[in-house]
Amino acid sequence: MKGTFPVERFATIRTPFYYYDMELLRATLQAICKEVRQHQGFVVHYAVKANANAKLLHTIRLAGMGADCVSGGEIEASLQVGFPPEKIVFAGVGKSDWEINLGLDHDIFCFNVESIPELQVIDQLARAKSKTARVALRLNPNVGAHTHANITTGLAENKFGIALRDMDNVINEVSKMKNVSLVGLHFHIGSQILDMGDFQALCNRINDLQLQLERRHIRVEHINVGGGLGIDYQHPNRVPLPDFKSYFDTYARQLKLRPGQTLHFELGRAVVAQCGTLITRTLYIKKGATKQFCIVDAGFTDLIRPALYQAYHKIENISSNLPEETYDVVGPICESTDVFGKQVDLNGTRRGDLIAIRSAGAYGEIMASQYNCRPLPVGYTSDEMT
Ligand SMILES: *Cc1c(COP(=O)(O)O)cnc(C)c1O
Fold first, then answer.
1. Distance of alpha carbon 210 from the chain centroid
2. Backbone angles phi, psi at 5, to 5 degrees
3. Is the Cα dihedral 325, 331, 332, 338 positive or negative?
4. Is 249 helix (H, G, I), strand (E, B) or coil?
5. Among residues 10, 46, 142, 194, which is most buried (max CB within 10 A)?
6. What is the pLDDT of residues 218-264, one digit of tens each?
7. Cα dihedral sign, 78-79-84-86
C-alpha cells in the first residue's frame, strides 16, 4: 500500500521538499490529548528539536501542549508562535549564559539542569536579575533502552544528566542556593523506544528515588519522564499513529505519583514523524554491474537519519504504476553514506518520477545542512495545497 499524495500539485514545486500532512498531525495530537485526559496530572510538552517548522509548532500549540526546548533558539521559536513562557521547559547539557538569561527574562516554567556547575551559573545569573529560577534535576537513571546506541541517553556512560550516586550531594548544593528552587526531577532514556518494558524500568527507578527523597522529607512538584516513544517506520500507511494508549497507561500503572504531583512528558518523534514526507525527484537510473541505482535530487543534507543512524525509511515511487524493480536509492552528495535505502522495491522508476521518503517529519527538515552549498529544503503543509 502506498501513501496518498497530491502528486499533481507536487509536479510544480521545486524538489526536494518536505510535505506535512496536517490532517494526520491533528489526528495525532487529538489521539495524545484523548489519552492524556484519562489521567489526572499528566502534562505533555512537545520536544521542539524534532521539528521546529513554524506551521507545525503553531498547530501543536493550539492543541494545548507546552514546549520542551534545548537551546535559546528553540525558546525564541516557541515564543514566536505563541507558546506561553509558563509552558516552556529548557533542557540541555550545555546551556550558555545568554540562553539561561533568555529563559530567566521570560520566566519560563523550568530549567532542567544537568550538573552542579550549571546550577551555580543559573543561581548567579538569577541573582543578578533578582529572580528565582525553577529547576528540575536531570538524573541519569542508568536505564538502558532497546534502541540504536546513538540515541540511547540514559546509561551511566552517556554524557547526559546527574549520576544517581551524586543526587544527594546535588540536592544539598541546591538547598544552599538562594536563587534556584527545586521543583522537579527529570529523566530521558532515549528515542525510538517501542518496548514498554523500557519505560517500566524507568518507572521502577523513579519509584525508588522518590522513596529515597522522602526519607529526606523532599517532595518535588513534578516528575518529568522525557520522551522517546517510537513510531512504526516500516508501516507508515497501516500504522500512522503510535500506541499512545500503551505508553500513557504504562506510566499510569507503574509510576507512583504523590498527591498533587504532576507527571510531565516530552514527546518529539511520536508527534511529528509520521506526518512528514521528503519528496524528491528521480534524476537518473544508473545500471551498475550487479545492481541499479535510483539517483534522486535529495541527499543527506535534506534527511540525515539514514547516514547518521542507519535509519530505515519506507520509500515509494508515487509517480509510477509500473511493475516493481529493485533499486539502491541514493543522493547526489559526494559521500558514500549518501544512501536512502539499499535493495528497495519500487514501481518501475524513470527520470522525473517523484519519490516519497516516508516518516520523515521528525529529525528531518530540522537537521538539514548546506553541505555542498545545497539550499535548505522548504517545508510545505497540506493546508497550503488545497
Ligand atoms: C530529544 C529529547 C526528547 C524528545 O525525544 P523523542 O524521542 O523525539 O520523543 C525529549 N526530552 C529530551 C530531554 C530530549 O533530549
1. 27
2. -135, 150
3. negative
4. helix
5. 46
6. 999 999 999 999 999 999 999 999 999 999 999 999 999 999 999 99
7. positive
Residue 150, pLDDT score: 60
Give the span between the Cα atoms of 258 and 261, in whole angstroms: 5
Q: Average pLDDT of each block of 10 consecutive residues along the chain (386 residues)? A: 91 97 98 97 98 98 98 98 98 96 98 96 98 96 71 65 91 96 96 95 96 94 97 98 98 97 98 98 94 97 96 98 98 95 98 98 98 97 90
Residue 167 CB neighbours (<10 A): 17
Q: 196-215 and 244-254 are packed helices; what angle lies between their axes, rounded to 10 degrees?
A: 30
The one-letter code for the residue type at 349 is T
C-alpha cell belonging to residue 242:
503510535
CA–CA gap between residue 257 and residue 315 (Å, rounded): 43
Q: Which three cell numbers mark 256?
A: 507512583
Distance CA 44, CA 60 (A): 11
How far, in whole angstroms, is CA 105 from its chain's centroid? 26
CA nearest to 255, candidates 228, 231, 216, 222: 222
In degrees and rounded to multiples of 5, residue 253 shows phi and psi of: -80, -40
Three-state DSSP class for 147?
coil
CA distance 276 to 381: 9
266 lines ligand 1 (CB under 6 A): yes
Instruction: Evaluate: CB of 114 within 6 angstroms of ligand 1.
Output: no
What's the CA-to-centroid distance between 226 and ligand 1, angstroms?
A: 6
Q: Helices 72-80 and 97-105, interaxial angle, to 10°?
A: 30
pLDDT at site 156? 63
Using only C-alpha atoms, the chain has a radius of gyration, in whole angstroms, of 22
Atom 12, ligand 1: which residue's CA is nearest?
226
The answer to whether 380 and 257 are in contact (CB under 8 A) is no
The rounded Å distance from CA 270 to ligand 1 centre is: 10
Ligand 1 atom with the smallest distance to the CA of 70 is 15
Give exposure, 310-342, as e/b (b: 16+ Cβ within 10 Å): ebebbbbbbbbeeeebebbbbbebeeeebbbbe
CB 138 near ligand 1, within 6 Å: no
Rounded Cα gap, residues 63 and 59, in angstroms: 7
Query: Can you give the length of the chain in residues?
Result: 386
**Selection from 259, 257, 258, 247 nearest residue 34 by Cα:** 247
